[in-house]
Amino acid sequence: MSDKGLREVIAAQTSISDIDGAAGRLWYVGYEIEDLARNASFEEVIYLLHNLELPTRAELEKLNRFLVRERELHPFLARMMPTLAQNTSPMSMLRTSVSASSAFDPDGWDESPEAEYRKAMRLIAETPTLIATFDRVRTGREVIPPDPGLSHAANFLWMLHGQEPDPEDADVLDTTFVLYADHTMNASTFTARIIASTLSDTFSAMTGAIGALKGPLHGGANEEAQKMAEEVGKPENAEAYVRDRLARKEKIFGFGHAVYTTMDPRATVLKQLCKDLGERLSQPKWYEIYSALEETTFEQKGLYPNVDLYAAGVYHMLGIPTDLMTPIFALARMVGWTAHVREQYANNRIIRPGSEYIGPRDRTYVSLDER
């Protein structure tokens, strides 16, 4: 029996994250996502997903030192960036740059568990620098080097905007990173694990994952949600806008999920973040538009918002360009991807599903002159 989309197929065993779609619950290594979003830093979640335990203070400080040290881009990547900024989209840049990083990783082709862990941390550390550098170069601004005194989230805002971020803004961004860090066997994570299952290298697996995330039915939905909100313009337009899109059988981005049959727990956290941030920055408009879209989409279609809807409003208010929203998704999800790849390597069997043939049978070759 085939299962289109593999929705009911168990493809792997994992200790990293779990979902109860009917109850609207998500756990990282047994911790509720709301608990981690409220209390944990992104750096703690990095350690948790890779080590399956929260770090001690000494372990967290050691991890932070490594991440800070690995933020700088290799000179080759820095020299390549003007060409990429001129000719590619942000996600294409990220895909190409991560692939190119394999040539300069200090651990080379060492496939020991220790080396794979270091490779993962380097990719996590350099991804924010790649994204911020790309945006600075394409807009003709001076590239801002990483600040070793700032957290992962605060440093990204610093490199992107060129000014010390408001601590509350950095905390908000940090929380979004926690929410996006992993989500079981989604399309990009599955892609990464399939590649890893062939015993290809980590960089190939990450390149494939980024390619999967690039699609608007996966990571690109947050960008489309922001474009949608801008088209709506004001809350009172939401009902007619949704009705018109549904009449034309067009997708309402930021709604519905392959696993959740109720509210995505990450969306619940992001909805409050969006509301609070809008009030603090005197930009309530975005929360009001998204809230109106949520209400009317549920009334007309019965769909709940997913993680991408309110995340788009949060990122917009933090001054993040719309086309960087999916790369930021990748920035956070790099943690989960690399954790899953390491887990696949540790207990590997090549992933090779079957298929159901639906084409013609029992045909006989006919010569070219007789066709």
Folded structure, characterized:
It is a single chain. With 371 residues, this protein is mostly helical. It contains 16 helices and 3 strands. It has helices spanning 33-39, 42-51, 57-69, 75-87, 90-101, 113-138, 152-161, 167-180, 187-197, 202-213, 221-232, 238-247, 265-280, 284-301, 307-317, 325-346, and strands spanning 17-20, 25-28, 31-32.
Helix content: 55-70%
What structural category arises from helix and sheet content? mainly alpha
Q: Give a count of the beta strands, DSSP E runs of length 2 or more.
A: 3
CATH second-level architecture of the largest domain: Orthogonal Bundle
The CATH class label of the largest domain is Mainly Alpha
Provide keyphrases for this structure.
single chain; mainly alpha; Citrate Synthase, domain 1; Cytochrome p450-Terp, domain 2; 2 domains
Provide a compact summary of the structure.
It is built from 16 helices and 3 strands.
How are the SSEs placed, and which strands pair?
Blueprint: E1 17-20, E2 25-28, E3 31-32, H1 33-39, H2 42-51, H3 57-69, H4 75-87, H5 90-101, H6 113-138, H7 152-161, H8 167-180, H9 187-197, H10 202-213, H11 221-232, H12 238-247, H13 265-280, H14 284-301, H15 307-317, H16 325-346
Antiparallel strand pairs: 1-2, 2-3
